[in-house]
Amino acid sequence: MEQWVMVMKPETYQAWYDSPRGRWIGTVEYALLQSLLRPEPGSSLLDIGCGTGHFTRMFASDIRGRVVGLDLNEDWLIYAATHAAKGERYVAGLAQSLPFPDRSFDFTVSVTALSFVDRQELALRELIRVTRRRFVLGLLNRHSLLYLMKGRTGGIGGYKGAHWHTRKELLAVFSKLPLDNLRLRTAIVLPNGPAFARTVERCWPQRIPLGGFLAVTGDVLFSTKLD
Hints:
Layout: H1 10-17, H2 20-37, E1 45-48, H3 54-63, E2 67-71, H4 74-82, E3 89-92, E4 105-111, H5 120-129, E5 131-140, H6 145-151, H7 167-174, E6 179-187, H8 195-203, E7 213-220
Parallel strand pairs: 1-2, 1-4, 2-3, 4-5
Antiparallel strand pairs: 5-7, 6-7
């Protein structure tokens, strides 16, 4: 059974994103994902592990193309579908066995879902298989204040059981895959979100990757066949 199947009610989870702190964090994370992915209007996009569809809706509103959110939790999918922004579609499925043909989407995105998935490398290969152009992942950064606050000794709250990645670990994994232009960036240096944290976020040098939210992007190559 996959760890990213969440037992929290979708309304409770979405209420956090609607709080002042959650709204700030979600906005910063989305801006980073959008700047790395750069999807053109009218393109197609898959959001793997979409949950309540929070980020799916944001991408759908921006690109106004074929957008699909995938998750294993039926209750969360129902919530996402009833709150659809621009006609995006939601389907049930596993990250390790995506129900789509090869190269089905121009872009793929997954926001923290892979931090809770077993057999992560298989999920990554599936993500790459269905992608024509570029992907972006939002992960949890072990080298961050957020990890010290929420991730140690197995994690607490919504972070319980999460895998926290390091840059070195990710570079080793992605070096085995047919990718180009791999980039890693972080955001949310101070996760509490008061005015001071927001000022730090705007001024923090990106060359110091200590943000709790770790974004990874790359272009997919098809000269090499995935095993």
